[in-house]
Write a structure and sequence with these properties.
The complex is a heterotetramer, with 2 copies of chain A (227 residues) and 2 copies of chain B (221 residues). Chain A has 227 residues and is of the alpha/beta class. In chain A, 22% of the residues lie in helices and 28% in strands. Classes of the chains: A alpha/beta (227), B alpha/beta (221).
Chain lengths: 227, 221, 227, 221
């Protein structure tokens, strides 16, 4: 019997290696795998590259992981937040590397990684700093730049529902980066609000099929709050 | 009225600025509103003129802000404010959401800006080449991807420097992207001739508007 | 009030031009917009390029359109069927052009068209006839070829449910190419089994949001039958 | 048993061929089965050894064929046969379905073939460079994309020509893709040394197998 549901955070975080590229889903406080990030903090992997829409808030979650010196590089679109002090301090001190990526390019690079597309052309960023050093090409009269897929060794995801095959649904804006982080990551670990019996989620309503999911931890924390 | 020729006009308020943009959006358009003043545009589109608002984080069909006791904690926009969803609204993931933007499916995006040049260049994400930790978010995707890009901003900076320029000095968000600019002083189209003034705040003279604008202004042909 | 629901086939097919590229969804007999294809036959546009997974069966639908001499070129992955006589006759007579595309490349090219990606690299077809004349590139030790987006002037789609904003759902294997045909086409016309009131489809269950849809015709024909 | 050394073996039946592949698929693998003999592999995987079968047309988690009076007309596989969906099965669109294939998420694909070369080249979609209207379907995606490609086919053509060759003469589906070949005579791995015979039909000699094979066969190291 396939059973991707793990019983402990230790099982969820087993075998995560130093030097991993970690894709973190979530946008704002919604659909963000906070409990798994805490698990990663506890687990101890270091020298990480983290890709996430922003760069942490306050001294918790991703900010805490950075504060502990475990993150070598951040790949994000918006390294600001209501309280970005940890990232900004590290960045000014030259203690963390930053790769700024337009939000849509970040999303498309993850989706490409999951879809077997190692590189693609896009108009976003043409004529800006983002295009410096990138291959340019004119196609049908418009200029595009080439962007590479962004692969994760580890993807952390928050779902609304999950079953033992790893099928997932999301709630409203909790979907955000979650499905593409799942697609793009070699090891996809999910925290889910609800565990369903196999077959209880309508086949037409499953958003992330279990093929993109490796481990599921039941974390029924309730509603997100605050940003 | 005062006797001073220079002071003798009334700039549009922020509400008026948002309202003027809102009035120019026809029913049925798919529209993304940037963070800041542009967000207020939605408040001035009556619900019975159906305009479908998009938010980068996978929301299509945003409605008005929720009443305080009716907040849905799983429903936020790209500015991380609580929102409502209209009947007919739908959710998608980030890559699908940006497919709407980058695939040219949005009829309009309204952004704020630091500077707009008279060739349509827009700078709205970083104020220096050496900005510490510049944050771009979805601005470049929106500027490059939407069918039309309008800018909604003050006509000058707080210290009076022009924001409508011949060449942006701040890092670009996208080249040759802006189609129209709404400011507290005027509505200005970006055309092959450069900036063409469509309307001005009451009492303002064309010469006075030009004095507050680095790039040359034109009257409609 | 936005109302994408049209009342007649004439309205559904208005302004379709000769020389159009038409993307046809459907796989087998399931999720195939048969009634709209008949409408296109009736409408009269010619010199069409049609992209579809296969190249028609018997003397109905796409096969009929070809038989009437209205199709200049077929872009497909599998120009065979239980009865491919029309296509094969035209093809042997040199009366129709054929572009064979691997099925996944066909799907990805449509998705790319909808997503603002004019070209992308893929491993599919490398080392085969499909790669002849295409740009090759080695990325991280593997060879890929460059494929272009496939844009539709017109997309024909079959949905299970639709509302007046053009939001769509699909039933089971009826989904197939439909969502990506909708994304990739300038004018997307849908036939739907069911029309729902706005708001009756759960926002988390809508598969194709109305932004990708232009016209919806109510065609409650029931179940697909036969191939 | 007959006295003839050459005739003194019993080829595997089609059922046995499918069964041998089925027995080698561990629980939890995501597997796509090509049209033809490979489709029959699913019948030999017991439901309680959970193997998740994928079909190109957006189906993940196919179950056994339906009983005749329980056909769901909206549920077909890539071979356009009616299927069932297991509890836990899910639907997706064609681009997402091929993302599973092309993104390397399938553990295994089993295809039929016209020819397999001892460097792993596979030819299974066209029988001549000038085939009229060749039909490729998803074969190239599957051959290039799955983590492992196994081939299930007769050892020779009907007229006795070898199908395990030094170089495919038919147009390739993918180069250097096949990891293992199951035939009616043997199971053969494709390795850096070339074809390595893992097992043979009962009574068959290695020499006899070699006689029916163009490429050189090796014994396991």
């Amino acid at each position: 019997m396939i059973n991707k549901i793990v019983q402990s955070m230790a099982d969820a975080m087993a075998d995560i290696k130093d030097g991993s590229t970690v894709l973190l889903a979530g946008f704002g406080a919604v659909g963000q795998p906070n409990v798994l990030i805490d698990g990663l903090i506890e687990q101890g992997a270091k020298d990480l590259t983290v890709a996430c829409n922003n760069a942490g808030t306050g001294h918790i979650g991703l900010a805490r992981l950075m504060e502990l010196g475990r993150v070598r590089k951040i790949v994000c679109s918006f390294p600001r937040s209501s309280d970005p002090v940890v990232f900004e301090t590290l960045y000014r001190a030259g203690k963390i590397e930053l790769e700024i990526v337009p939000q849509g390019t970040l999303a498309e690079r993850m989706r490409a990684a999951g879809a077997g597309v190692p590189a693609f052309f896009t108009a976003t960023g043409v004529g800006t700093k983002m295009a410096v050093g990138k291959e340019h090409r004119e196609i049908e009269g418009r200029t595009y730049i080439l962007e590479n897929a962004l692969y994760g060794d580890l993807g952390l995801v928050e779902a609304w529902e999950a079953d033992r095959w790893g099928n997932l649904t999301y709630k409203l804006a909790g979907r955000n980066f979650n499905p593409i982080v799942a697609m793009a990551s070699k090891l996809t670990v999910v925290q889910t609000q609800h565990v369903r019996e196999l077959g209880d989620i309508d086949p037409d309503h499953i958003v992330t099929p279990g093929i993109f999911v490796d481990r599921v931890l039941h974390v029924p924390y309730g509603d997100p709050s605050g940003f | 009225m005062s006797g001073s020729a220079v002071a003798d006009f009334k700039p549009f308020s922020r509400t008026q600025m948002a309202l003027r943009v809102a009035n120019d959006i026809p029913e049925g358009w798919y529209v993304n509103l940037g963070i800041g003043i542009p967000t207020a545009v939605a408040d001035h589109v009556p619900l019975d003129r159906e305009v479908i608002f998009h938010s980068e984080n996978g929301v299509l069909g945003m409605g008005p802000a929720p009443e305080k006791d009716k907040i849905e904690p799983w429903l936020i926009n790209a500015g991380k404010q609580y929102i409502t969803l209209r009947p007919g609204g739908s959710m998608c993931h980030h890559a699908d959401s940006f497919s709407m933007i980058r695939g040219g499916h949005l009829d309009l995006c309204v952004l704020g800006a630091f500077q707009v040049a008279d060739n349509g260049d827009i700078a709205n994400w970083a104020t220096s080449e050496n900005d510490t930790a510049p944050a771009v978010g979805g601005a470049m995707d929106l500027a490059a991807g939407a069918k039309r890009l309008w800018v909604l901003m003050e006509h000058t900076t707080k210290d009076g420097s022009p924001k409508l320029v011949t060449k942006c000095t701040y890092p670009l968000t996208a080249p040759a992207a802006v189609k129209r600019v709404y400011t507290n002083l005027a509505t200005i189209d970006v055309t092959e001739r450069g900036f063409v003034v469509l309307s001005m705040a009451p009492g303002l003279t064309f010469e006075n508007l030009q004095a507050k604008t680095e790039a040359k202004l034109h009257l409609p042909a």
